[in-house]
Amino acid sequence: MRRAGAWAGVVLAVVLTAAGCGGRPTTHHKPGTSHQEATGGSGTLLAARDEAGHRLREVPAEGAPSVRVEARPDTEGGWNVHLTVERFRFTPESVGGAAIPGRGHARLLVDGKETGRAYAPWHHVPPGARSVTVRLHADDHTVWAVAGKPVEATVPLATTTASAAATPPPATGPGTAPTATAPPGTTAPAPGRTVEITVTGKAVQPPPSRIELKKGEQLTLRVTADRADTLHVHGYDRELPLTPGEPGTLTFTADRTGLFEVETHGSGLLLTQLVVR
């Protein structure tokens, strides 16, 4: 009877270990095994590393992700950089997880030095930069690679001035309503913009990007979600309860400069980023 009880204890321990907390897979791994080696489950982990020490993860050329980069001057200095990806999507909600094909984030390297991560198509590069490289990473921070080389794209900024300057950036972007013009004899409305965002499950439309604002400009966020949640504007500490299927409106003045994220608390989704200058 004592031996049977001992075996029962062993079986129970195995079941608990396999299931983890709540039956979900655990990210813990055995001593001596790196996080990249433990979580990666796709492609071939190479010994080669990039300049920042991230290991390369080899995948076949057929079906591999790709990225293209375009840059145009910002009217207030620097460059607005746009990323176009294929067979790849940005997954900020699963950073630190396993390497899954077609998912992850990008890293921006300005003049060969890594300056930050990218989770959306649009980004701003400060003045003085000569080139920008965009490199695709998996959720476990390894670098997607084909034929032993990182999946990346580079654009020289100095040579894009002439062509980009001929077409100034539009005043409004996707999901942005232009400022209304008052009829003759009436008072013009306060300057500002309205951005409409729709959240369905984990999908955000339009896809998260950066909204360029001038300090003191008024912004109205009109968000419609398919579930109860809370909208939060970081840096301004403004929140708005969201009711399923009903547009929620939050209006405030962008009186602080910097980069601020707008996200949902419950689902943890990045809706957009505000760049206030």
Compose a concise summary of this entry.
The chain is mostly beta strands. The chain contains three helices and 22 strands.
Overall description:
The longest helix is centred in the first third of the chain and has 18 residues, at 2-19. The chain has helices spanning 2-19, 35-39, 161-165; strands at 44-49, 55-58, 66-73, 79-86, 89-90, 103-110, 113-118, 122-125, 131-137, 143-146, 149-150, 152-156, 176-177, 192-200, 203-205, 210-213, 217-225, 229-233, 238-242, 248-254, 258-264, 270-276. With 277 residues, the chain is mostly beta strands. Strands 5, 6, 7, 9 and 12 form a 5-stranded mixed β-sheet that branches. The chain starts with a helix and ends with a strand. The relative contact order is 0.12. It has 3 helices and 22 strands. It is globular.
Features:
277 residues, 3 helices, 22 strands, five-stranded mixed β-sheet, mainly beta
Q: Could you describe the largest sheet, including whether it forms a barrel?
A: 5 strands, mixed
Q: What's the gyration radius in Å?
A: 23 Å
Shape: globular
Order of helices and strands: HHEEEEEEEEEEEEHEEEEEEEEEE
Q: What is the helical fraction, as a range of percent?
A: 10-25%
Number of helices: 3
Structural class: mainly beta
Unreliable sequence segments? 4-40, 159-190
What average pLDDT do the residues reach? 78
Strand segment count:
22
**Subunit arrangement of the protein:** single chain
Strand content: 35-45%
